Fold Phosphonate transport system substrate-binding protein.
Amino acid sequence: MLKSLIAAVSLVGAVLAGTAPAWSQAQSPSADTTPLRIGIAPHTSARVIIEQYQPVRLAVEKAMAQPAEIVTAPDFTAFARRALDQEYDIAVTTGHQAQLLRQDAGYKPLLTYKADFKSVVVAAAGSPYADAASLRGTTVLGLNPSSLVTLWGQHWLKDSKVEAQLRYVSAADSVAQIVLAGDASAGFMSLANLQKLAPDVQAKLKVIAESQPMAGRVYLVNARLADRWPALHEALMAFAETAEGKAYFNTNALGGYREVGGEELAAMEPLADEVRHVLKAVK
C-alpha cells in the first residue's frame, strides 16, 4: 500500500512538472505500479550512483511499463547480503559477486559493459611509493572486504610477499583524498573510478600496479523476473543505440553493452567464495 502511494505521488509530481515517466504513458488500469528495484553495487557515493544510472532507470521503466528506482547499499558486503536476500529485481555488480548471485540466489546474467574492468593501485604522484615492496608496513586503502578491487589488491600484496595494514573506506574519491592527504601510502580502486575523478585529482596520483581485465559490472535479473529477461535484454541493447545511451556510455567510459557468458563468470568463483567467507564472518 505504501509503495503504491509513493509511486502515485511521484507520478503526480512528474505530471505537474511536465515530465511524466514513460511507464505512465498509455498505462492500463491493471499495470503494476510497484517500483522495480535496480540495485547498484556501491562503487562510489550513493548520490553519484543514483545520478549516473538515471538513463538506465528510464530505459527500464519504458520497457517494463512500470516505475523503477535506483538503490544501493552502504558497502559491498551489505550489497551482497541484500542481493542474496532477494531485495533487488535487477542487480548490477562486479563479476565475482555476479557469480555469487548466479550460483547462490538464482539471478540470471543479462549483460555487461564492453570496456575492460581493471583494478589499479594508486599513490600520490610525488610519493616514494612505486611498487608493492615500497608499501611494506604502511597503510593501504581498500573499499570493502567484498569488493573486487580490494580482493585483487590483497592478492597482489600477498603474491608480492608484502604485509601492510589494510584500511577500508567508502568510495574511490575517499581513497584519493586520503592518499593525497598523506594518511595512507596507496589505495585500490577500479580504473573506471580513477578516470571519473576530477582531472586535477587524477594529475596528483600515479598508478603503481594494474590488474589484467576482469569481469566488470554485470547486470543480473532476479529469478522472479525470469519471464521478463528477454524484454529487459532487448530494451537495454536498444537503449545502447539511442543518443541518450551513447551519451551515457561516453560520459562513463563504458563502451556499450556486450553479452556475458557463464564461463566468464565461473572464472570468478574463487573470489566469489571469498565473499561467502566474508559474509559468514560478519553475521
User: Anything to note?
Assistant: The CA atoms of residues 89 and 148 lie 22 Å apart. The chain has two domains: 34-116+215-281, 119-210. The longest helix spans residues 2-16.
